[in-house]
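Before relying on records like the one below, remember that each one covers exactly one chain. Contacts with other chains, cofactors or solvent are not represented anywhere in the record.
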Amino acid sequence: MNHSNFPSAACRAANLASVSGMTGRLAAFDDWLDDVLVERAAAAGEDVETYVARAVASRMVADHVPDGGTSAEELIAHLSKPGGLVGSGMPDVTAVVADPERLHALHATGLLDSPPEEVYDRITRAAAAALDAPSAAISLVDVDRQFFKSKFGMGGNSPQERQTPLDQSVCQYTAANAAPLILEDAPNDPVFKNHPAVAAGGVVAYLGVPLINQGGQAIGALCVFDQKPRLWSTGHVQILTDLAELAAERIFASERSAEQ
């Protein structure tokens, strides 16, 4: 380790004071570990207390096991409140997400707030199995939220668990760009490291393919994600694209029938 890159003595003293002012749970750290902690926090552009709190938050989400108690989505929502443990450097895609034609295409499907259906659940299960991913979802991106028409490996199916605020959605960027989004190690991505779901540890690797109607409007995405880095191959992208097309065929079946 190159100690010449350590923060200044004054910065180190301030950060160590921050450590000592916390709960004392780092008391087992020796001076060398304290130095490394300060160095890593400085490299992340954070004070030590924020850096440690973010690490704890990430572990809380990573260790979450659905058991009828607190959901991962609920954890992330609390960790992402204003002044919480998230950054604010994500691109603004509001204009695309709120586009009236896109929203009309979404609402015309009638799927928002609809109950789970086996035809869609088969697709998310197939996506997770084919890509060996622990979680998959068909996400519909509304103006202020994302709604999960289907999800796999993501907890329960109560109304609260089937939607998140829009700022928790990675799929909104897949839909806004109307193109596959590939994230292999999001915490080290210069843009997506700032996303609330990434900063809280809920998403590390993500692969999403947009759900697009005949008019070119992307209403959401079929995605898989993991809490560890993944290398997504062109084969993975093709498989997910094929499954997304199956989902889109089902979603927009009435639209196609009307055109014939």
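The radius of gyration is 21 Å.
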